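question for whoever is on the cluster today: can someone run the full assembly for these? two chains, 1146 residues total. i dont have access anymore since they changed the login thing
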Amino acid sequence: ADFKINLPKVYQAIEEADFFAIDGEFSGISDGPSVTALTSGFDTPEERYQKLKKHSMDFLLFQFGLCAFKYDHANSKHVTKSFNFYVFPKPFSRSSPDVKFVCQSSSIDFLASQGFDFNKVFCSGIPYLNQEEERQLREQFDEKRSQANGAGALTKCPVTIPEDQKKFIDQVIEKIEGFLQREEKRTLELNPCTGFQRKLIYQTLSWKYPKGIHVETLETDKKERHIVISKVDEEERKRREQEKYAKEQEELNDAVGFSRVIHAIANSGKLVVGHNMLLDVMHTIHQFYCPLPVDLNEFKEMTTCVFPRLLDTKLMASTQPFKDIINNTSLAELEKRLKETPFDPPKVESAEGFPSYDTASEQLHEAGYDAYITGLCFISMANYLGSLLSPPKTCVSARSKLIEPFFNKLFLMRVMDIPYLNLEGPDLQPKRDHVLHVTFPKEWKTSDLYQLFSAFGNIQISWIDDTSAFVSLSQPEQVQIAVNTSKYAESYRIQTYAEYVGKKQESKQVKRKWTEDSWKEVDRKRPHVPGPCYHTNRHTRREHQIPFITDGCEPPCGCWQLNSGPLEEQSAL
Amino acid sequence: ADFKINLPKVYQAIEEADFFAIDGEFSGISDGPSVTALTSGFDTPEERYQKLKKHSMDFLLFQFGLCAFKYDHANSKHVTKSFNFYVFPKPFSRSSPDVKFVCQSSSIDFLASQGFDFNKVFCSGIPYLNQEEERQLREQFDEKRSQANGAGALTKCPVTIPEDQKKFIDQVIEKIEGFLQREEKRTLELNPCTGFQRKLIYQTLSWKYPKGIHVETLETDKKERHIVISKVDEEERKRREQEKYAKEQEELNDAVGFSRVIHAIANSGKLVVGHNMLLDVMHTIHQFYCPLPVDLNEFKEMTTCVFPRLLDTKLMASTQPFKDIINNTSLAELEKRLKETPFDPPKVESAEGFPSYDTASEQLHEAGYDAYITGLCFISMANYLGSLLSPPKTCVSARSKLIEPFFNKLFLMRVMDIPYLNLEGPDLQPKRDHVLHVTFPKEWKTSDLYQLFSAFGNIQISWIDDTSAFVSLSQPEQVQIAVNTSKYAESYRIQTYAEYVGKKQESKQVKRKWTEDSWKEVDRKRPHVPGPCYHTNRHTRREHQIPFITDGCEPPCGCWQLNSGPLEEQSAL
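^ ran it for u. tokens below:
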């Protein structure tokens, strides 16, 4: 009820905003054995998508944070409207889907430790429907209405009553005739009967008495459905029908619930900012639009269709010119870093009647707060880009060309050499000629792998599962040596990354030949959009001891050339 | 922490009780398309067990109600101690299992509407471990301790240090030698290193310095593990070790948590009463003992091992002599009925300091209250049995022979002709010669089936899935007629129940020949225990229009003959 009252406020905020920041809290992250086991450092974007789809979509996105930012030019400050939505797939009726979702005790425990209020989700969460569910419910209402209205052509002629139902229907008609004779009685309640019988009654009555009576199905206290007939004149009948229609529309809107907010954000076409937002985007589409498509390219198309402009602040912070001056890209650390030089914290104020957050008190992990912080980080970084121009620009808008290189590229967690998922085209394909694929007994631990490769200096291990891992060597030349020396090993097996991928492709091609073909089709249609250049983050390197040399562009590559041409503010719309 | 403080109170209540009543609340009931679709009216007990195991065990039992009943002879009244435990599988440490469980939105919504407090589960639920998890944790502690103590025989001789680690270990020893020289220093912190290196250090030190130093692993603020060495005399060393051992035992107990309550109930061997308790029992064993066994006979053995005496009040109420005088066996209705003649509500009082429930206010669906009500129902029904004796017995104890016929028989929901799962022997095998198995297009609805069989008078439909159902006819003679007339039908197919079972067995036998053999083994070992006689509940019949005649015993059958022999109070122990 609260939601319904506040919805106009939400719509207004969406209407007037320059851009949004969003954040979701989930009932779990990964249903696999462990998150690290599921995210290999050498996942391809396709593999990562499949893993997240398979192991994360059964969790529930149950808190959605939205922060709308609007620039107040007169006072040179950003005005925010921040919302914290608790969502829950409350069954709408007996026939509505009974959603099952998974909870992961570590995630629940983490949220509990942050003071998360689970009762707000489970007792008063806002319901929602995805598009297919909404369509079905709308159809149900339409069908019910057309049935009540006499089902059109069907009942222009007498209904065929099955032999065994004739007596029943005759009795009903007799009852009604008696009822119509007695002027003092306004309504008649029939006995509860089956759905099939109710259908026959509706059809018979709309043929026999096209006017003058109103027929409706009600439920008794015992949840039995029965038909109630009342005498009405034509005007009254129409009024009742319109009333009923309005009521149904409202019920439908209530059931669609929170999805209406997501639709409004999507329809605005405005920039949506998130921090490490791939899972947020996947859950949002999965929960409020439709189950995620089988293949990554379809997901990309669907996502750009729903959210034409996304920006991931974690990717932005780990890309030049930021990554040299930002060490830690976690949201909390990023927010702190962006308060210091060379960055300049933006002037921000919450709109009247909206929660004002104090960034010093660190109410992290409430979705609305995290969204707010994410928005701040975006503004600081965007303004920093402006400060590099000559002459410097103090305030960079959400529609500036300066930030376009960061559009629709979602950060890929813990992938070593592919920084982002590119929603607007094919993904980067780094050479992995310094990488080995190793298979071994399941008793092996990380130390056994270090042992095995101790002759090769620094190595980087990236587990795939219990019995296999990728091992990257510091020099591509070492790869063949390792493969050769392992030829006669019995307990383990080493192959190059290329060999591994080749074999995997082979077994896949047989399985889904036709899917592959339709993929190529999609690829051909897409223009090749080069992404912003990504340098291996030297800090991360040292921490994790990744000594390999990145392929692709050599630093300094100048892909992100601030002085490569005339740069001016331009509307992207 | 509350739980730990109150545990002695719980133990005392269990210790002094005559019997217990229990009840569980779950995060969901069935993960299938719908509960009705999953529970066919002609399930065999084996099929029902498999369905519940497959579709219900991923939900969480998150509220456990326990009500301990003790009879106060001096004052002729029952004294109750009622508990409401919120349980949650909070991860105990980094290495503890990260449990995933499913929530069903309809169940959650139902509990929410009853005022259920989800924060009590998720924020302060009592943790628990099953027996395997407890064993593993105990082993981990033992291993850590034996490692710290010098790992016994392993380190009586020098450790083999891998070539590449020799330099590292030599440096560590050098550091320690220096540390031992300097009298003023009491502790030495080594740099963080890998688990493998820590193991080498432990082994080396316990061999080189069996006495005089204490070695332990601590975590830095950054969660890096490093070794700290301190100088201690033998006495101090022992004291520290004992302290650590006591602390570990406490941690272990905390982790086992709520399972300790279940163990105490089980170990008491006392009667445990529940209402429609099959799912409660399955969840309790699954969550606090071990994953449920693959086959039903193993489950029966396991259950009688854990809970030697179970009694299901729903089964009791639907069995003679009760079923003729009790129309509705739902807990709320049963409780009301048992307040009226010929029943006599028992005198019950809650013990001092325990919640006293008012049955008039109907706080249903809090597990502790439901358990309490269930206990009351049991007492009323047991006393009624006593009142039928001559001379009448006013108070029947939980150890009376009178209630033994009801032991270890769990009510089977919505199975038409098998009233209970028999934990102490093979299950009833009713003839089903009036039953047909029908296959049809998935567009068919119940009305289509009624249509199809309209010539056969009253029928009873029991859906199996989208495209098949059991249809029971009123006369076994009609079965062959139906099969014959359907021979040339194209859209549907009819076979007898016997044919259906035969084909199913055939395809199964191939799949699991050896399992079948081991089953027979179990069956042969079990004595055949006849259950209490069950009459078709005439009331239910009329409601659902089941016109078929039950096979087996004809009413009045006298299986439950109160006057068949000398009946006296006897301890069953």
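summary bc i know u wont read the tokens: Confidence is low (pLDDT under 50) at residues 151-155, 514-573 of chain A. The first helix of chain A runs from residue 2 to 16.
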